[in-house]
Structures are given as C-alpha cells and as structure tokens.
C-alpha cells in the first residue's frame, strides 16, 4: 500500500464552470502555433521561414544556447506566420495544416533495449525534449544532467482543472511506455503521484517501473513542487525533472510509432463557457474553433491553463505547449461603488470579511478585478494557511525583493517555482505580484549560480 | 452612483500627470478608491484575486472596535454622573459621553489623515489604510479628560516618528497608537496618570461629590490598597474608570470574536498573551509577598488595558511577530511582562503599554530565530543528501 501524504494547508477555490466529463466535437482548427514564450528563458533560433513546408515533427526553431534542443511542428502543413512582439521577440510560429498529415519518422522501439544516449537523442530530435522541465528554476531540462528523480503529478488540483483520470482513458499503454522511457533517464525513481480521494485510473495506480504515491488534501496538493518537498526534497545542487501526464503519453507514442504525435485532450472551462466539456485535439492548437460559439456574450479573458497560473491569450490565440485547459472568465474592468464597505454576499474571499461565508458550498463567478491597490506586506500568517511547504513564504519574497541571494538560498528558493506562490498571490490583500517576483528571484539565482 | 462616477471620470485627468492638480494625485486617488473599488484588472500572475484588500481588512478592525467605542462613550457619561451624584436617563448619559469622546476621534483622524495624505503625496504612493485603525485606537487608549491638543500632538508624533520615518504602514517597528500613548505618558504624565484623569470633569472638580476618588483599581493596587477593587462583574461589563475603550471586557470580547472569525486578528497572539498573563499572575500568587502579588491571577485580565492590549494592540500584524511560532513566544512574553511591570513597578501602574512596545522591538529578533531554525533544518538536509557536497553541474 503506497504511503498517503496528507496536505493540510491549501485552498480549493470553488469556481463555476467545471468541465463535464464528456467529449464534445468541434471542427479541428487549421492553425497551430509553437510559442517560444512558453519556455522561460529561451532564446529561439528560427529554422524555418514563412512559406516553408513542414511535417509533424519538423524542426521550427532551436534553442540558441543549447542548439540540440529542438522545437518541432505539431502538425504537417505550411509555416504561415512568424509573429513578433516588442523588439522583434518571436511570439508565435504559426503552421497552417494541410490535408497530407505527414510525419517525420523518428526511432521507435523498446526503451529497455536502447541506451540512455539513444533515448535522449530520440527525444531531442523529435521535439519532445521541452516536455522535460527541471527543478530548480522551472526551465527546460539540460540533456546532459542526470536527475535524482522524475516526478509526474497525475492529478491537477487547480481550480476547474481537467481530470487526468478521464483524459488518460484509452492512452494507458502509451503512458506506460512513456514511464518506461523515463525510468531509463534517472538515477533514482520515477514518481507518479495520485489523488487518494478518488480511485485513480489504473494507468497511474498500477504503473510499472515507477513509484506510486498518494496525496490527500486541497490545492496545491496536485502541484508537483509540493509533492517533491514531501517525497524527495530538492537540495542545493540537485536536479529533479518533472513532466505532465499528456507529455508522457506523447513520449510513449514516439517510442511506439516513431512519430511526433501531440494529440491532446483539453478541457474548456470557466464560468463564461456555456457548456464546459472536454475536446480531443492536438497540442498548440488555436482556440478559436473551441470558443467562438461556446462562450457567453461580453468582454472575457481567455486563459491557456488555469486561473491561477495560466497565460492570457487572445480569443483566436493558441493553447500553450504545457497546457491542457482553456479557461474563460469575465474581465473585471468595472468600478464598484463603496465596494470595500458592502456586505459582499457573492464575493469570494478566503477570509470571512465578506458575508459570502454564509454559503460555503456555492460556486463563484470570479472576474479579473484586482479588488484593491498594491500595498506593503501587512497581514501575516495568511499566506502560510495556503502554503503547504516547509518554507516561510513572506520572508522568502522579501529576500527576493532585496535581491539577497544568500538569504534566498537559505530560505529555500531552489524548492519553489512560480506556481507554488499562486494561491498566496490569490489571497494576498496587499495585491503583491508574487509569481512575477518569484520568477525574478529564480532568474537572479540562475544568473548568479551559472 | 452613475452621475458621481461620471463626475469623477470628468475631473480625473486634471489630477493625473500633466494635469492642473497633478500635485494632488495621491489625495485624489485616496478619495476615488474610497468611493469606488478601482476597475484595475490583473495583468500578471493569478488571473483572479481574493475580494479582500487592505481597505476591507482595516474596516473590519474598525467594526470590531465599535462595541468598545460605544460602550466607552456610555461609560464616560456614566462615570461622570456617578462622580457628580446626578441621576440621568440612558440617553443623557450616552450623549454626555458622546460629546466628550467624539472630539477625540475627530482630532485623531483629522491630524493623522492629514499627515498620511501629505506623506503619500511626497512619496507618490497611494494612501495607506493603516491609519483608519490607528486613528480609532488612539482615542480609545486615552483618558477621557485628555486635552484635545495633546491628542493632536501625540497623533502627529506617532504617525511621523512612529511610522512614516520607517517608510509608512507595513514598515514600522512600534505600534503607532501605543507610540502616541507612550509619548503622552512620558511627556505629560500629569494628564495620563493619577486619580483625576479617568473621569470626565474630575480635574476641574466642579460638582464632584466630596471624597469621591476617581482612582482605578490598578492605581490603588500600585500603592498596595486592595479593598476597593470593583466587583468582577462590574469590571467585566466595564462600569469602572479607565481609558475610553479599555473598560468593558465584554465589548472587547465581542471585538475579539469578530477579529478571529473574520480571519483578520491572530487568535494565537491573543491566546498566548492571556496565557502569559495568567502564568505570571500564578507565579506571583506563589510568592504572595504582598497584597498585589496575592491578587487572584484572573483579576489582572479584568483590570486596566490588559484585555484591550491583548486583542487590539499586541495583534497588530506589522509590529507583532510575523511567523506563527514567533507569535506564540511574542504573545506569551508580552503577557508575562505586562503583569511583571504592573506588580513589581509601582511607578507604572499599567504594564501593558510598555510590555507591548518592548515586545514590538523584540519581535524581529524572535522571528529571526524562528526562521533560522527553518534554515538550519534545510542545511542539515543538504548534509544528509549524497549530492550535498557535489559541485553543481549546471
């Protein structure tokens, strides 16, 4: 019986718009885009021009500093646009799909008969390597490292998050193959972490060549950083790799079929979606076909990912490489007369300063209003209530603000990434931009330690 | 509302950069955000945010202070009528007290907020809400007969020296309201201590009954007189002389419940302050060298500002310990020190103010050691791990 880890601190934000567990059908989009901005710190070097014909798995761009890391096209078609932002930063490399559906061929075979170098080479060439993210720093892993373990969180506890047990149906074998691949890459174990509170798919709970750990408790129990701290804490100088479930499936497919197959299940969620459902599609797709008739009228925010850690995208934008969720919530750009003094029966708050505590079970429609101005840290003890790590969050943030490298290291910056502070950021009455701060701290450390 | 909003939107450009009243931007913003929660949306990080902000937090504290304030007003009248021997209806008593206490509040808010606005303007910051609470606390810890100019001077001292020189709300070391009180306590002791200051009109002496002393239990105990301690029930309900807000333990209890239930005040600090007080009281009971030491420990909670300090002053999140473990230590020491000063130092009949201020100073030190233990744990883990001494490869 695997050990159960109890996460006591945390918060489940009850939002309206959870996806119903059925697959809806929609015409597949003909636009797909790989976004260099999804990969933090990446400086891309383009390998295609507008008009280049590509197959699924053809390289679009590489990492300028580590040219062996390739980013490949999820579909076969033609590069139609290279969208740039300020100072000509490449934002999106857009591929328009054609009818041919051609695939580049990569090596397939049993990972247990291949050497570690061959496996990594195959992953790099196919463009699946970016699925490997390393802790500390939350960046694409270095193929030359040997991580002390590999972590996969098989459940997402974030608000409205998709249910991996539902998603994984029919992909069990590919998942297991993916796990087999991962088990060849680490000097330690592959950890699959499942939610104790409901029966997990056997793909996770019966997985071979991996250790299954059970977690119980509110969000962020599904955050892999929290899981790492409980099972195999990260010390200075150590490296752990993490992957998402659907990326493991893609890796499995690569070694089974030799194709770069980014087929994904995504959940369309949020209070402004009329019928929140799941969709079978391909990663990096444009969200336009999914949302344009499926949302209510009004001014909305479209998020690739969940409301706490996702990325804002345009209604015709593209879902992020690591995301399997689209969230649509109302924008909150309106004034509220004496809002701070009103009883607030329908205002979500973790504190009981609004009368909404009278109805704890309710599902809330929360918009993007900041609900106040930025202040210095004033209240204490609040962040700790939703922060289940053995770290002092406010003290660490202050160390980051002061750019005190020594103190950051002492207080555990290697163990955290942006998403670990998302709940603190959500509840913060001082409205501090904590995830931005954490990223700044991680970047400082990366610069200083390299 | 719509027309008000339109009006604000119309005059707003004049207060923004390049406008006619550019220099009053912070002030304008202060009023605007007071009237309307801004339309600002999240731009980075989490897309949704909790509805609670600093304004809401502070207003909850002010609401929690209201029972103590209202009772304080009533008691100000009640004590006056008692001292003059007059009879009065409820409304006569309350309105007398109201007229005595309300000016204190007005002076405290006007002085403090003016200074806050000026500093926000100089710094180009938004107005901080912290003074909403401080401005209410200051009158509540003053004797009712304190001259208004003293309230103004002490408030100014507290806001400038106690808070703004450190960088404003959130950066201060000492509790601003207690800084104001301590300032008066040492600068004008005659107005802050003794037998005559606690009852409205007592100092002028007109109409006061012969032989009526306005002394508090603490004042008498400091001279080792324990015959005239009021009955427990009276002390609990608050029909005793004292600073405006501190007398009714019932009103303070209601405030404490609001603070704890809303999740704004730290129950850990409140509980540990009382535990510390009880512990010290019991230790003195063990010696019982004089009447004060022999006083039943629980009676300390019913006298003076102990309860008020524990609930509203020691819990100030900025000046208290900021770690959860630290809060227990901080509270316990505050409670113990308060009783220690009370019983052993006859020069200071009330020890709560000094105890809290002293612990405010030590709170960062407590936090330092608490955080340090977390750091040590982490270092220990590194030493245990095989990779601990390996050179980094990335």
How would you describe this structure to a colleague?
The complex is a heterodimer of chains A (450) and B (394). Chain A is of the alpha/beta class and 450 residues long. Chain A has 3 domains: 1-33 and 105-332, no CATH class; 34-97, Beta Barrel (OB fold (Dihydrolipoamide Acetyltransferase, E2P)); 383-449, no CATH class. Helix content of chain A is 21%, strand content 21%. Chain A has 11 helices and 21 strands. Chain A has helices at residues 116-126, 164-167, 172-183, 202-205, 224-231, 245-257, 288-291, 393-401, 405-411, 422-427, 434-449; strands at residues 4-6, 23-24, 31-34, 44-46, 53-54, 59-63, 70-72, 77-84, 90-97, 133-135, 139-140, 149-153, 190-195, 211-216, 240-243, 263-269, 277-282, 300-304, 311-313, 325-330, 336-337. In chain A, the strands form 4 sheets. Chain A has a 7-stranded mixed beta sheet. A 6-stranded mixed beta sheet of chain A has the order 2-17-16-20-18-19, with no helix packed on it. A 4-stranded antiparallel beta sheet of chain A has the order 3-9-8-5, with no helix packed on it. Chain A is globular and about 65 Å long. The mean pLDDT of chain A is 91. Chain B is 63% helix and 1% strand. Chains A and B meet through β21, α10 and α11 of A and β1, α3 and α17 of B.
- Mean of residue pLDDT values of chain B: 85
Shape of chain B: globular
Number of strands of chain A: 21
Name the strands of the widest sheet of chain A in spatial order: 1-14-13-12-15-10-11
Q: Which chain pair shows the most residues in contact?
A: A-B, 82 and 67 residues
Q: What structural class results from the helix and strand content of chain A?
A: alpha/beta
Number of helices of chain A: 11
Total of domains of chain A: 3
Biggest sheet overview of chain B? none
Q: Could you say how many structural domains of chain B there are in total?
A: 2
Radius of gyration of chain A: 22 Å
Q: What is the strand content of chain A?
A: 15-25%
Instruction: Report the span from N to C terminus of chain B.
Output: 59 Å
- Shape type of chain A: globular
């Amino acid at each position: 019986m695997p050990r159960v880890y109890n996460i006591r601190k945390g918060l489940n934000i009850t939002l309206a718009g959870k996806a119903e567990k059925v697959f809806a059908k929609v015409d597949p989009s003909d636009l797909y885009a790989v976004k260099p901005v999804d990969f933090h710190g990446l400086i891309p070097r383009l390998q295609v021009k507008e008009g280049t014909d590509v197959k699924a798995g053809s390289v679009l761009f590489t990492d300028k500093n580590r040219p062996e890391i390739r980013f490949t096209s999820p579909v076969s078609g033609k590069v139609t646009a290279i969208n740039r932002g300020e100072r000509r930063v490449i934002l999106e490399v857009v591929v328009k799909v054609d009818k041919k559906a051609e695939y580049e061929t990569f090596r397939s075979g049993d990972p247990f008969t291949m050497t570690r170098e061959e496996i990594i080479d195959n992953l790099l060439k196919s463009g699946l390597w970016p699925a490997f993210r390393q802790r500390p720093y939350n960046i694409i892993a270095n193929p030359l490292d040997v991580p002390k373990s590999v972590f996969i969180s098989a459940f997402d506890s974030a608000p409205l998050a998709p249910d991996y047990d539902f998603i994984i149906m029919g992909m069990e074998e590919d998942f297991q193959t993916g796990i087999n691949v991962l088990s060849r890459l680490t000097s330690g174990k592959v950890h699959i972490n499942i939610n104790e509170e409901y029966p997990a798919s056997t793909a996770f709970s019966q997985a071979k060549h991996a250790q299954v750990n059970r977690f119980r408790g509110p969000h962020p129990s599904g955050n892999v950083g929290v899981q790492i701290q409980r099972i195999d804490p990260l010390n200075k100088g150590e490296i752990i790799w993490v992957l998402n479930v659907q990326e493991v499936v893609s890796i499995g497919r690569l070694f089974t079929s030799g194709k770069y197959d980014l087929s994904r299940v995504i959940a369309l969620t949020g209070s402004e979606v009329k019928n929140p459902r799941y969709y079978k599609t391909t990663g990096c797709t444009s969200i336009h076909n999914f949302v344009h008739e499926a949302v209510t009228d009004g001014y909305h925010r479209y998020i690739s990912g969940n409301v706490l850690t996702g990325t804002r995208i345009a209604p015709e934008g593209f879902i992020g490489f690591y995301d399997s969720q689209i969230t649509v919530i109302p924008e909150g750009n309106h004034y509220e007369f004496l809002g701070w003094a009103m009883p607030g029966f329908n205002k979500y708050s973790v504190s009981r300063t609004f009368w909404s505590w009278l109805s704890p079970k309710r599902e809330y429609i929360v918009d993007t209003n900041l609900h106040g101005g930025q202040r210095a840290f004033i209240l204490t003890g609040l962040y700790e209530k939703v922060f289940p790590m053995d770290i002092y969050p406010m003290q660490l943030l202050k160390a980051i603000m002061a750019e005190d490298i020594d103190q950051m290291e002492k207080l555990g910056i290697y163990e955290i990434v942006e998403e670990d502070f998302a709940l603190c950021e959500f509840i913060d009455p001082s409205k501090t931009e904590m995830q931005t701060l954490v990223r700044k701290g991680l970047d400082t450390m990366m610069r200083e330690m390299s | 509302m719509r027309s008000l909003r339109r009006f604000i939107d119309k005059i707003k450009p004049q207060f923004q950069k390049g406008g006619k009243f550019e220099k009053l931007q912070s002030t304008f913003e202060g009023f605007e955000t007071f009237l309307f929660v801004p339309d600002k949306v999240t731009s980075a990080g989490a897309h949704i945010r909790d509805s609670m902000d600093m304004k809401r937090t502070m207003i909850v504290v002010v609401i929690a202070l209201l029972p103590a304030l209202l009772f304080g007003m009533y008691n100000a009248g009640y004590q006056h009528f008692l001292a003059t021997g007059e009879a009065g209806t409820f409304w006569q008593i309350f309105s007398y007290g109201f007229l005595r206490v309300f000016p204190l509040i007005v002076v405290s808010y006007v002085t403090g907020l003016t200074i806050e606005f000026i500093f926000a303007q100089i710094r180009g910051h938004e107005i901080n809400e912290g003074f909403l609470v401080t401005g209410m606390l200051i009158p509540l810890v003053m004797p009712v007969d304190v001259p208004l100019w003293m309230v103004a001077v002490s408030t100014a001292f507290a806001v400038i020296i106690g808070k703004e020189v450190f960088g404003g709300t959130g950066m201060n070391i000492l509790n601003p309201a207690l800084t104001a009180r301590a300032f008066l306590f040492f600068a004008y002791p005659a107005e802050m201590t003794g037998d005559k200051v606690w009852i409205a009109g007592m100092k002028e002496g007109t109409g006061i009954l012969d032989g009526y002393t306005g002394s508090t239990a603490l004042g008498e105990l400091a001279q080792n007189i324990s015959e005239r301690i009021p009955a427990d029930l009276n002390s609990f309900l608050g029909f005793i002389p004292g600073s405006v807000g501190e007398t009714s333990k019932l009103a303070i209890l209601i405030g404490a419940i609001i603070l704890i239930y809303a999740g704004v005040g730290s129950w850990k600090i409140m509980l540990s302050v009382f535990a510390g007080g009880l512990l010290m009281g019991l230790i003195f009971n063990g010696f019982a060298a004089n009447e004060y030491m022999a006083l039943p420990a629980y009676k300390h909670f019913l006298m003076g500002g102990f309860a008020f300090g524990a609930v509203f002053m020691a819990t100030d999140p900025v000046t208290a310990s900021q770690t959860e473990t630290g809060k227990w230590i901080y509270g316990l020491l505050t409670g113990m020190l308060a009783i220690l000063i009370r019983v052993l130092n006859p020069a200071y009949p009330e020890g709560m103010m000094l105890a809290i201020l002293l612990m405010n100073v030590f709170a960062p030190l407590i936090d330092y050691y608490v955080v340090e233990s977390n750091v040590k744990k982490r270092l220990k883990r590194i030493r245990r791990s095989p990779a601990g001494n390996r050179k980094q490869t990335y």
